[in-house]
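Lab intake sheet, docking and co-folding queue.

SAMPLE TYPE: protein with bound small molecule
LIGAND NAME: pyridoxal-5'-phosphate
LIGAND FORMAT: SMILES
REQUESTED OUTPUT: full 3D complex as structure tokens
PRIORITY: normal
SUBMITTED BY: R.K., bench team

The fields below were copied directly from the construct record.
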Amino acid sequence: MNIKENLERINQNISDSIKKSGRKEGDVKLLAVSKFHPSEEIIEAINAGQIFFGENRVQEACEKFTPILKENNNISLHLIGQLQSNKVKNIVPIAECIQSVDRLDLLKEIEKQCEKINKSIKVLFEIHTGEESKSGFTDINEVYSALELISKNEFPHIIPNGFMTMAPFTEDEKLIRKSFSSLRDIKEKMQSEFNCFNLSELSMGMSGDYKIAIEEGSTMVRIGTAIFGERNYSK
Ligand SMILES: *Cc1c(COP(=O)(O)O)cnc(C)c1O
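RESULT FIELD (auto-filled):
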């Protein structure tokens, strides 16, 4: 695996998809998903200019990124995997954004831990848009209620920044597209209800479907395999 070459190729593909869909250069950020890959590979990506990184699991994120963030103050770490409430206190100090907010209780815990260390943190609401994925809010009214509470200053350390989804694992491009366009619809609806917030971030698209996601309005693609290669889950 040549991480630098992979990053160059993907950045070029992203740029091509942006042009193809009539969007502006720079509209789409690349989040390098480094789960199950060692620190040396992350550092290789950093040396190739990569800034945004995503991890799924809190313990792994802390072990790898605590030293990396000390050395590299421009790096931005996003948590993208399901988050248990008892792990929030460990991830909050090192993450810039938690993309996998899927319940109100989690927001409460994030607020509590952020208040303790006097830090503000960005969050995305993860939405269930495809039958086969399990995670995320299924009831949009709950997202509305959460945003309403934030707008009433119930969670002063939380900065809502947009939405995240995973498309269904299928070859059917129509279903994938529908999942992404439904997230965009949700964003537009919520943004018009809550113009006090910037809810513009749409985190959608992975190694297999990021071009479709960009055509459907993605502002951040989360790519692991196409940068770092296959993951070895047995380690
Ligand atoms: C692992 C993961 C990715 C990256 O998947 P690839 O197919 O390896 O690009 C993206 N988003 C989430 C939420 C993930 O868990």
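REVIEWER NOTE: Residues 74 and 128 are 31 Å apart (CA to CA).
SIGN-OFF: pending second check by T.M.
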